[in-house]
Amino acid sequence: MAILEVNNVKKIYTTRFGGNQVQALTDVSFSVEKGEYVAIMGESGSGKTTLLNILAALDKATSGLVMLNGKNLSALRDSEVSAFRRENLGFVFQDFNLLDNFNIQDNIFLPLVLAGKNYNEMRVRLMPIAEKLGIKAILGKYPYEVSGGQKQRAAVARALITNPQLILADEPTGALDSKAAESLLSQFQEINGAGQTILMVTHSTQAASRAKRVLFIKDGQVFHQIYKGSSTNEEMYQKISDTLTVITTGGGKHE
Amino acid sequence: MNKFFYGKLAFGNLRKNGRLYLPYILAAVGIGAMYYIMVALTGDKGIEKMPGGGDLKMIMGLGCGVIMIFAVIFLFYTNSFLMKRRKKEFGLFHILGMEKKHIGKMMFWETCMVGSLSIAGGLAGGILLYKLVVLALLRITGLDVPFGFTVSGAGIANVAVCFAIVFAMTLVYNLFQVRKANAIELLHSANHGEKEPRTRWILALLGVAALGIGYWIAIVTEDPVSTLLLFFVAVLLVVFGTYFLFTAGSIAVLKIMRKNTKYFYRTKHFISVSGMIYRMKQNAVGLANICILSTMVLVMVSGTVALYAGVEDIINNRYPKDFALTEYGVRSEEEKEALKGMFLQSLEENGLAVEDSVEYTSLAVTVWKSKEVLRIEKPGAMATPEGEISILEMITLDEYNRQENQQRELAEDEIFVSVRQGDENEQAYSINGRNFRIKEYLKDFDMEGLDGNVIYDGYFVVVKDIQVLEELNEMQREIYGSSASSRDYHMYADVSGTDEQLKNCAVRLEELVDGYNQGRAEEEHLAVRLAVKEEQREGFMIFCGGFLFLGIFLGFVFLMATVLIIYYKQISEGYEDKERFEIMQKVGMSPREVKAAIHSQILKVFFLPLVMACVHLTMAFPMMNRLLLLFNMKNPGLFAACTVSVVGIFAVIYGIVFGITARAYYRIVGEKSRG
Predict the structure, then answer these.
(1) What residues of B are in contact with residue A113 (Cβ under 8 Å)?
(2) How many Cβ atoms are within 10 Å of B610's Cβ, its own excluded?
(3) HSE (side-chain half, CA atoms, 13 Å) at B451
(4) Which of B265, B583, B589 sits opposite A82 (nearest CB)?
(5) pLDDT value at position A238?
(6) Average pLDDT of B447-474?
């Protein structure tokens, strides 16, 4: 069963003073099955971020259809968007987006508080997640007191705690050193192994090589995709690099 | 490099930062104008020549000092706001290759532009408004001297020099700030990781204690004269208490709120409480400033409004009759009669008819009264005697019968008592062991309340004869020594006649009294005093009107400052909150919830100072009421009405300012960060 379906999505930006139109997404179609771990790759300006914003219901497609869990995102009313996002999506950002005025625990609780859950339920939900991510000891600390890797794990916990249908990760290893990145990616794999669907946008080959499937976007279109199947991380890494080389050196021929 | 390069750069910077600089310049213009007006009033030749002009000048001089001190504090405060916001910009310039001395040059030009604009604007505004202010002043004080359109050279010079110095000082401060910091610090100083504030319980408790003692002094101190002294102690305590409470107490309270998980983990409280904890550290002082400024405005304006509104009361309390003639220390009956004759003759010569007159010779003694026991006792350096301080004004039965046309009798140890203010329950008095039975409490007593004393409790006592009176006189003279009171002759009269006649008569009488006093100058503190109600009224109108004017004027200055501090707070908080609310929206908070959370937070933070100011004012009310007694104003009802209306008007203005700036805040928070 497809959790996310993207059909012929097109996005055109109009610059502020009228005039120029910029086509960010030309025609994007793909779907994500429940339990999948998909990475979307592309260079800067390829439309990755635009796509992610549309999937996150932060932005609306100019045309085309985005269905999340059977619901059409562009048909959501403004008043429903926030609650929908809260209930169905979990977010992990490159720059963590933790709030300085909350400690780690309260940062993780934030979406639940917004959803009106009571404290005891929040604690019950938090404990196994904190255990799994190894952040139990820093729950009482503030974001500025912990390392980048710890911050990102806290952000992952915040994304997981609502039991979302889909986790959207935007360049999650972008601000981490290689060791922290490696350990975060392992955790993503574990989480995915437990049945969580993940969609990650990245331009790190290392990060993408951990996913079960990699989509390549170029000039606003899905250009190519690779399934990991039974390949090892290293083989996957090699496949991705080859594809990227093809994309940068010439395009089209591969198809 | 073009020699105008830095000037152009500075000008561009100011334009780009218009949202920050415009209010700053406007405020400086406002304060400059106010200061010019005050200085010009102090030096105004027209005012100097007027009767009572000296008092007015003194009051305005007071105002000058207050405004100048205030201008320095205020300009520095807002300047530090600006610097905080602009450090990032300076850091960028630095990284782009400007040396600190170049940044300094640029800042120099900026300060020059802001300074000259402010001074020029202030002077222009001041000169234009001056005439209007003078007319208002004359109207309030009831004076009617025509003024031309005057420009005070001294005022211009004073404003230009003083403000130039202040701006130069801010420049030095800013240069020092930039010199101290390195580029990276400058770049990040606007949003470096704030540590959560620690709870400083001791400071919080100290704040509560200081406030408590301040309030306690304000409420408990009964004696108006010591009130004057203790007032400053109480004010200082309350000021410190407010600072401590806002800085430490607020954080303690918020942390207790956070500990309560049931309360804390709800969308509204979750965001506002944590936001306030985060915010209190940087903004507590600002809020305390707003609170104290608001209290100052409220106290000053309501006090002076009440004083002005009660000016008739004051005059009638103090001068119940048109003329009051007093001879301190009566030496002989003949002399007394001569004085009376002289007085009546002058009235007659000037065509004034006596409508109603009261005369008596009395001995007024200060006693400490507790129930039936009255003590004549010299207060020690440290301790005052037990009991309520009261004035006992004593006359003989003869005087009473003559004045009131009565034929009453008293025994040796009997007295009549008329209570002006105090208890009326005692059956007898014991004055330093001498016992008297109170035969009757007198009502409708002509001699009542003529002494103009409304501060202390007062009792009029009629004793049998001059022997009893002398006995008591001896007693008090022995105890009080050189500060003992004398038997004084009082003559009060209401007259009818034209204002012209009254004025002439007053002039004539003053000459006569002066002559009379010169004749007996050698004798210590014995003299004749004359008080003419009409003349006193003019003086009081100038005095109270001058204070009202100053109160409103300074109230206006402080209000302007309050408004500006609020504005800057909103703006700088807007920039800080922008990012936080963006994150929360990404995590699933709807724009409506964002707006509600912002609103609940700002509302709490901003109306806290106002509520606190009202609490201060309520606690200060009894004390202020007693201070007004020193001006012979005794009308708590009127004072309460004035206070309530002033608070009402202030709250409305505060609300409007809050609304306007809150909108600016929403605009900043709502702006898209990308783009």
Answers:
(1) 265-267, 270
(2) 21
(3) 25
(4) B589
(5) 92
(6) 77
Partner residue facing B589 (CB), from A91, A109, A114: A114
Residues of B in contact with A98 (CB under 8 A): 583
- Interval B26-81: pLDDT, tens: 889 988 998 998 888 887 777 777 666 777 777 778 788 888 888 888 888 888 88
On whether the CB atoms of residues B60 and B44 are closer than 8 A, the answer is no
| Contact yes or no for A10/A62 (Cβ under 8 A) | yes
CB contact at 8 A, A150 and A184: no
Asked if the C-beta of B265 comes within 8 angstroms of chain A's C-beta atoms, the answer is yes
CB neighbours of B403 closer than 8 A, spacing ≥ 6? B358, B359, B360, B446, B447
The bridge status of strand B457-463 relative to strand B388-396 is: parallel
A237/chain B closest Cα distance in angstroms: 32
Residue the block writes with tokens 């500990």: B259
Q: Say which residues have a Cβ less than 8 Å from residue B261's Cβ, sequence separation at least 6.
A: A119
pLDDT recorded at residue B673? 43
Say how far apart CA B25 and CA B125 lie, in whole Å: 13
Which residues are within 8 A (CB) of B457 and not within 5 positions of it... i.e. 6 or more apart? Answer: B369, B388, B389, B390, B391, B420, B421, B422
Q: What is the DSSP letter of B371?
A: T
List the domain boundaries for chain B.
1-192, 196-319+533-675, 320-532
Which contacts qualify for A206-209: CB closer than 8 Å, 24 or more apart? A206/A173, A206/A178, A206/A181, A206/A182, A206/A237, A207/A39, A207/A172, A207/A173, A207/A181, A208/A39, A208/A41, A208/A236, A208/A240, A209/A233, A209/A234, A209/A236, A209/A237, A209/A240
User: B281 touching A, CB under 8 A?
Assistant: no
Backbone angles phi, psi at B476, to 5 degrees: -75, -30
Per-residue model confidence (pLDDT) at position B113 = 92
E-strand stretches of B410-535: 414-421, 428-431, 434-441, 457-463, 487-496, 528-532
B675 with A109: Cβ contact below 8 A: no
Residue type, B265: Y
- Residues B623/A149, Cβ–Cβ less than 8 Å: no
List, as ranges, residues 190-249 from A with C-beta within 8 Å of B. none
Beta strand spans in A75-135 (E): 89-92
Question: What crossing angle do the helices spanning B250-259 and B201-220 adopt, rounded to 10°?
Answer: 120
Taking alpha carbons only, the member of B325, B459, B327 closest to residue B392 is B459
Q: What is the ipTM of this complex?
A: 0.81
Q: Which of B584, B587, B595, B672 to mutate to test the interface with A (most CBs of A within 10 A)?
A: B587
> b/e string for A173-198 if b means 16 or more Cβ within 10 A?
bebbeeebbbebbebbbebbeeebbb
The residue among A13, A68, A99 with the most chain B CBs within 10 A of its CB, best to mutate, is A99
* Chain B residues inside the 8 Å CB shell of A49: none
Question: What DSSP state is assigned to residue B412?
Answer: T
CA–CA gap between residue A105 and residue B305 (Å, rounded): 55
A100 touches chain B (CB under 8 A): yes
State pLDDT tens for residues B587-617: 878 878 877 877 777 777 778 888 999 999 9
| pTM to 2 decimal places | 0.73
Chain B nearest C-alpha distance from A92 (Å): 10
Widest CA span in chain B: 106
β-bridge mates for residue A7, sequence order: A65
Better-scored residue on pLDDT, A34 or B355: A34
> Which token pair is B592?
């409506």
Measured from the Cβ of residue B404, the count of other Cβ atoms closer than 10 Å reads 15
Contact A233, A210 (CB under 8 A): yes
- Mind telling me how many Å the CA of A113 is from chain B's nearest CA? 6
Buried b (16+ CB within 10 A) or exposed e, B38-56: bbbbbbbebbeebebbebb
Instruction: Report the gap between the CA of B279 and the closest CA in chain A (Å).
Output: 9
